[in-house]
Design goal:
504 residues; 8-stranded mixed sheet; elongated; binds zinc ion
């Protein structure tokens, strides 16, 4: 048995920083637009006023009290070593990026199975998920008039190629969809459209503008195409840039609003600003060349492993993260961190010899980024009703903040969580936010209480979907803290006598 004081002493070096950055009252964010299908949109902003009392008081609560000793034991054991980072290092440095359907993804599947075996999971398996291959090819974009400038760009996932040798057309700068509709086909046809909407800078304690900006990437090209645009550039969904374009998926599947697929690319903030300045002075001509291509359907399975429950093995507590990444960088924060956090969470429980009442199932999902194929397949194969709860980690490996909950505040699962999240107090991560869980949980439908692991994302979107999402951006201490907290959460939800979503 390890006392609370021992946990506090053990954590002392990092605790002060966490108190400053993490502990804050819950802030509903239900007004945030729902994220688009393959669009990870964590909604947590961490920097809020310190709430020191939260750490010390540990209010007596009916369910949390029953698990307080367990939680302290798990947190203390969980912080011995930095296994989560060691796992992530294997993935980032020895597999690298791993777009679903690529050889990197096949290597990542092997990594996932190896890690599951190493932490001691049972029933390790892959499923029948298949995905359409998309190859990035090469890209080249430049301003040819009024002056020559090479632009920093990355093709968007699903973009088709330009005609061989590229296309040259006049630029049209658009800030909001209304301008596009107002101009109509006459104003848009034949142009290269730039969606220049700027994602707002991160505001401590405030909302994160990703969900309000990224839809220009996911939906903008299709809407411009419907009015005859020849190609589309989208200002990268980030508030900070060092000439770094941020890729991501674009979709042409909304029948009424979408035109045929057109070449589409993300452009760095610097490039977008240049184009806006030039366009304000007069006509701008661009040349764009993309050689991306679509390939066959190939196997790209989810990887699944379990701690089988001792009393109710048929009741599932799902811990999810997505195994695929974009085909640039290393996918260290997105979502290698989530995979390592969830695998290490169950590893901690196994090292402690804890076998919960229910089954804890880890699912490393396929192709979250370009179509959610893994989660669609998973929901097809597994009846949602067998799930007691699901939690996804897909917001990077920043300092822990707490949990998000997809649903209403009068839901029994939410009300129990208000109480249980006090168990995260030793790491100051007691925020509970409503409005979002994780893209991969979308298809589990509303019968399953769904949660998201919430970490500090103040710098997450600086590297998200870029060549700069690499291991050096991940703090090993934060990663391990997240894993320890997820171990507590998995244990409590899988062990508590009632299902977390049962009527109160
Ligand atoms: Zn992600």
């Amino acid at each position: 048995m390890v006392s609370a004081m021992a946990v506090a002493r053990f954590l002392a070096p990092t605790l002060a920083a966490l108190v400053l950055s993490c502990a804050a009252p819950a802030r509903p964010v239900a007004e945030t637009p729902a994220p688009t299908p393959a669009d990870p949109a964590p909604v947590v902003a961490a920097d809020s006023p310190p709430v020191q009392a939260e750490l010390q008081a540990k209010p007596a609560t009916p369910i949390a009290d029953a698990f307080r000793a367990d939680a302290e034991k798990i947190l203390a054991a969980g912080m011995e070593g930095r296994n989560a980072f060691a796992m992530l290092r294997q993935l980032t440095d020895h597999v690298g990026h791993r777009a679903a359907g690529s050889p990197g993804y096949t290597a990542a599947v092997a990594w996932g199975k190896t890690q599951m075996a190493a932490v001691g999971l049972d029933r390790i398996r892959t499923d029948g998920t298949r995905v359409r291959v998309w190859n990035r090819g090469t890209i080249d974009a430049e301003v040819v008039a009024p002056a020559r400038h090479r632009l920093d760009v990355l093709a968007l996932g699903n973009s088709p190629a330009t005609p061989k040798g590229g296309l040259t057309a006049e630029l049209l700068v658009i800030q909001e969809y209304e301008e596009l509709e107002k101009l109509g086909e006459q104003g848009v046809k034949g142009r290269i459209v730039l969606f220049a909407h700027a994602m707002p800078a991160y505001v401590p304690g405030g909302d994160v503008g990703y969900a309000k900006s990224s839809h220009f990437r996911t939906r903008g090209p299709a809407r411009a195409s419907k009015l005859g645009a020849r190609a589309v550039l989208v200002r990268s969904a980030t508030a900070k840039s060092l000439a770094t374009p941020h890729t991501g998926v674009t979709l042409f599947d909304e029948k009424e609003k979408a035109g045929p697929p057109v070449p589409a690319a993300a452009i760095s903030i610097e490039g977008a600003e240049l184009l806006v300045r030039l366009a304000s002075e007069g006509p701008v001509k661009l040349k764009l060349s993309i050689t991306s291509s679509t390939g066959p359907m190939v196997a790209a399975p989810n990887v699944i492993g379990e701690i089988v429950g001792r009393e109710r093995p048929e009741e599932i507590v799902l811990l999810g993260a997505h195994l695929d990444s974009w085909d640039v960088g290393q996918g260290a924060h997105d979502d290698g961190a989530g995979c390592a956090i969830m695998l290490e969470a169950v590893g901690i429980l196994k090292r402690l010899g804890l076998q919960p009442r229910r089954t804890i199932r880890v699912v490393l999902f396929s192709n979250e980024e370009r179509g959610l194929d893994g989660s669609v397949q998973y929901a097809k194969d597994h009846p949602p009703a067998s799930h007691v709860a699901a939690i996804e980690s897909d917001g990077g490996g920043g300092a822990p903040v707490g949990l998000s909950f997809e649903g209403k505040e009068d839901a029994p699962a939410y009300r129990r969580t208000v109480d249980l999240i006090q168990l995260f107090a030793p790491f100051g991560a007691t925020r509970l936010i409503t409005g979002y869980s994780g893209s991969d949980l979308k298809h589990l439908t509303e019968v399953v209480p769904r949660f998201g692991h919430a970490a500090d994302i103040s710098t997450y979107f600086d590297v998200h979907h870029t060549a700069a999402d690499t291991l050096d951006k991940v703090n090993p201490d934060h990663l391990q803290q997240n894993a320890a907290l997820m171990a507590v959460w998995a244990w409590v939800v899988a062990e508590m006598p009632a299902r977390i979503g049962d009527p109160l």
